[in-house]
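Hypothesis: this fold can be encoded by more than one sequence.
Test: take the structure tokens below, design a sequence, compare later.
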């Protein structure tokens, strides 16, 4: 059974159609990366899938339950860590997780045990007695993640969990997401960070202006926009002859400057020795060589016509009801 099924899902705010009839499927045990710029419809989609916002069209099911007709069952099956963590700054980390356990119906003893285990898991045992208001941004994100895991959800929704974090904190979140997934948790991850989706996601959906414009594995999507290319820096005046030689090895790409030659190669690294050998036989000195592979940024540009902004926004990225 798929963990998430979305068919023709829509959401309008007055005349503005924030989500315009999207379809997607997430299998159990998968990490699904949902990519898009601010205002694309990512958070609106997550709010509908987590029963926080009613769709105005289409349907969706999560963990086998309809998000409208079986909202209570959906909520019992999911964990949610939204972009802005709703954490009481006056509570300690331990108090907050124990409160979440109580709200989820765990008996007191089980709640205490679960809180201790989760704080240990996200690396916050040493800060468990400190007030949440004293936590750094990365610590608060990890605490919010722990709170979302109290009831051992089948599906975990993470809405831009690393936005604004330093590289070390971001890597810590990545490692925890991977560990959760290895334990069997399905993860629906929205992000603006292309590297994040590339590192973590089994499949990626790209949303732009409320529509899904591309979907597939990171590798298959990158394969759609071209093969790897070799970027060569050659000696002064050697570019024309190097281009002539490389034209017989693969498709020449537009040069970056007058010193570099770019040639697309079908087999990637396996074709590099062939390129070097051909240039050497032609008496052309290669000063440097780099194999450049297509990125998700290239995919995003090809599918949307613009680059994904990496702006770190404050607050909600979507339109919301007044």
């Amino acid at each position: 059974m798929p963990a998430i099924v979305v068919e023709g899902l829509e959401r309008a705010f007055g005349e503005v159609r924030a989500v315009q009839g999207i379809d997607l499927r997430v299998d159990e045990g998968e990490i699904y990366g949902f990519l898009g710029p601010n205002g694309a419809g990512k958070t609106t989609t997550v709010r509908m899938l987590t029963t926080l916002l009613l769709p105005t069209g289409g349907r969706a099911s999560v963990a086998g339950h309809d998000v409208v007709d079986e909202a209570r069952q959906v909520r019992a099956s999911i964990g949610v860590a939204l972009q802005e963590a709703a954490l009481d700054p006056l509570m300690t980390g331990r108090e907050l997780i124990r409160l979440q356990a109580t709200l989820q119906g765990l008996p007191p003893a089980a709640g205490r045990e679960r809180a201790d285990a989760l704080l240990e898991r996200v690396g916050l045992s040493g800060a468990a007695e400190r007030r949440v208001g004293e936590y750094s941004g990365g610590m608060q994100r990890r605490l919010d993640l722990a709170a979302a895991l109290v009831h051992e959800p089948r599906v975990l929704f993470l809405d831009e969990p690393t936005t604004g974090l330093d590289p070390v904190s971001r890597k810590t979140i990545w490692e925890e997401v991977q560990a959760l997934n290895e334990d069997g948790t399905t993860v629906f991850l929205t992000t603006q960070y292309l590297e994040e989706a590339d590192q973590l996601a089994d499949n990626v959906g790209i949303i732009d202006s409320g529509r899904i414009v591309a979907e597939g594995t990171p590798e298959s999507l990158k394969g759609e926009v071209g093969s790897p290319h070799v970027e060569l820096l050659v000696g002064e005046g050697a570019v024309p002859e190097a281009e002539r030689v490389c034209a017989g090895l693969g498709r020449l790409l537009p040069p970056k400057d007058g010193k570099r030659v770019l040639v697309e190669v079908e087999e990637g690294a396996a074709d590099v020795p062939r390129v070097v050998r051909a240039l050497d036989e032609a008496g052309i000195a290669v000063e440097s060589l780099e194999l450049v592979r297509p990125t998700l940024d290239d995919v995003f540009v090809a599918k949307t016509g613009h680059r994904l902004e990496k702006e770190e926004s404050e607050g909600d990225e979507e339109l919301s009801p007044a």
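The mean pLDDT is 90. The two ends are 37 Å apart (CA to CA).
Hypothesis status: open.
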